[in-house]
Amino acid sequence: MKKFSYPKTFLLGFGFFGVSVIWAIYNAYVPLMLDGKFGLSAAWIGFFMVLDNIAAVLIQPAVGAWSDRLRTPMGRRMPFILVGAPIGAIAFGVIPLASGLPLFVIAAGTVLLSMALWRTPVIALMPDITPSEYRSQANGIINFMGGLGSVISFSLGSILYAKNEDYAFWMGSGLVILASALVLIFVKEPQEYSTKAQDQKDVRILESVRTVFMEEEKSAARLLLAILLWFLSWYAIETFFTLFAVNHLGLTAADSGFQLTYVSLIFLIFAIPSGYIAAKFGRRRTIMVGIILMTLCIASMYFIPVASLVGVKIASLTKDAGLYPVSLILMFAGFAWALININSLPMVVDMTDDEHAGTYTGLYYFMSQTAAIVGPVVFGSVVQVFNNNYSLMMLLSPIFLVGAWFMMLGVRRGEARKFKS
């Protein structure tokens, strides 16, 4: 029988910690290298930086379904971590050493493929080892660990990068090796997944999507559409907020970037409490409250005058960054995003049985990463049509959130199964 264990869940969280470390450093410094070292244009840099999302859409769902079927003495998820994490770590350490673009592309491509290989299995381990009624809490812990990985990468990584750009990447490689080793050594899969005969057919991701949407009961389909819609909203804001802050609010580039720290910090603080809130009040209700709060926060940045958003600096936190009224709005947005994001994956995996948790985890990433590809392109095109009016982000983004809220109205499954064993 599964038992919820805080130490085991925190140890499992090191898997997502390792994933977050890699992507935080990759997203922060690879664009700088593509520009300064290889002289690529902005268009090519943008294309290169979206390749990880394309790889996630094409590979992660299939790997999740594959891991459901796999049976080895180690279990069904661990082999992917054992292979993917070391390859990814080694390739990541090679990236700053590449003197030519071909070697750089090979190293970065290897990172993309290897990370796509083990991200879904390591996340799918959560429902494997966690009883249904504790999955929101467990996902909160895992996201907390992921957020901690990002914070360490941004803070310590920036210090190391200033000394030598190689050091930040090597730190990432070392932390991934350490994190994956902790998972492999201390987290044990349920015995049935190392001994039970393989009896599931090969299911392709598009077939899985079609199957879900053809079901008579539409809860899973509506939830997946809601996930697509709120991630479209999220990635649009994440991508264009700094441009909105510079061009509309009049903040400096440094101050604009720092404002997003408020979202990440509050998300990190409320990652674990959000799981407990859902355990008390229900996942669907918690997510819907989060959507409403997120909608109000984003829309307020469109309707409130600029002078009221940044006209008064409440406090100066660094030489270049401050605390403004808009910062407080972003803090509430971080709390709202925690209510939504922490509880969505547990709802998805509790739409199915434990045998197919990897497949449904893959469906979750299929929707979220599709949004990561489509969202910035669509929203960026709209901004361009309206003469680079970045404030439109704060009007269009809530529309997608409202759509997600209406999708959630029809969701009838996905709550914790209290007597699951």
Strand residue percentage = under 5%
Shape: globular
Structural class: mainly alpha
Low-pLDDT regions? none
Number of domains: 2
Give the count of helical stretches: 16
The overall pLDDT average reads: 88
CATH class of the largest domain: Mainly Alpha
Helical residue percent band: over 70%
Strand order of the largest sheet: 1-2
Q: Report the CATH topology name of the largest domain.
A: Growth Hormone, Chain: A
Rg calculated over all Cα atoms: 21 Å
Architecture of the largest domain in CATH?
Up-down Bundle
Number of β-strand runs:
2
Distance between the termini: 5 Å
Summarize the biggest pleated sheet. 2 strands, antiparallel
Helix/strand order: HHHHHHHHHHHHHEEHHH
- Full CATH superfamily name of the largest domain: MFS general substrate transporter like domains
What does this structure look like?
The model has no long low-confidence stretch (mean pLDDT 88). The protein has 421 residues and is mainly alpha-helical. The chain has two domains: 1-199, Up-down Bundle (Growth Hormone, Chain: A), CATH 1.20.1250.20; 203-411, Up-down Bundle (Growth Hormone, Chain: A). The protein is globular and about 60 Å long. Helices cover 77% and strands 1% of the residues. The protein has helices spanning 6-36, 42-49, 51-69, 78-94, 101-129, 135-163, 165-186, 192-195, 205-214, 219-249, 253-281, 283-303, 306-310, 325-349, 357-385, 393-409; strands spanning 315-316, 322-323.
